[in-house]
Amino acid sequence: MTVRGVGNVFEVGCGAGANLYLFARDGFEVGGLDYSSTLIDIAKKVIPADKLGEIICAGADELPTDKKYDAVFSNGVFPYFNDFNYAERVLEKMLQKSRRSVAVLGTYDKDLEEVHMNHRRQTIADYDERYKDLPKLFYPRRFFEDFAARHNLSIRFTKNDLEGYGNALFTYHCFMERRLD
């Protein structure tokens, strides 16, 4: 795998390290953060020690920013934040930790919230009762566009085209990079 200008990556919400393992296997130095100590312990075991930078058990908004990485990303975590203020704090930390780029993957699209919720209710029996304690935060693209503008970042969005993932139709990816001016 080649990622332009990237030698190391850090994942916010890394879980047991599945994404980090793949990057490490391809030669990248990796680091990660997750609030679950159990998952962090697994990540420490599966990621080769010579490729593992820092691995941190903490909340996403507690991300330490002293060690820098070329790219900092989060995959499927932002929808489970409580509110936009928390998401903004996490984005700020991600940007501070990155030398070059920040990516937020698997973000639920605010424009498709109603369609998504109707789909879930039609395909999952008792959806509202089953998932009442697991709300999803849907993001308007403007949330990321405003952040990028405030920080002079280039920004692009892509469709989530993960084959076989039922929620792909309702999510998008956001990529932001520091401008090289």
N-to-C SSE series? EHEHEEHEHHHEE
Strand order of the largest sheet: 3-2-1-4-5-7-6
SS element count, helices: 6
Instruction: Report the structural category.
Output: alpha/beta
CATH topology title of the domain at 59-178: Rossmann fold
The proportion of residues in beta strands is 25-35%
Share of helix, binned: 25-40%
Coarse morphology: globular
CATH superfamily of the domain at 59-178: Vaccinia Virus protein VP39
Query: How many angstroms does the end-to-end distance come to?
Result: 27 Å
- Please report the first level of CATH classification, the CATH class of the domain at 59-178: Alpha Beta
The mean pLDDT is 92
Give a count of the beta strands, DSSP E runs of length 2 or more. Answer: 7
The major beta sheet can be summarized as:
7 strands, mixed
Low-confidence stretches: none
Radius of gyration: 17 Å
The CATH architecture of the domain at 59-178 would be 3-Layer(aba) Sandwich
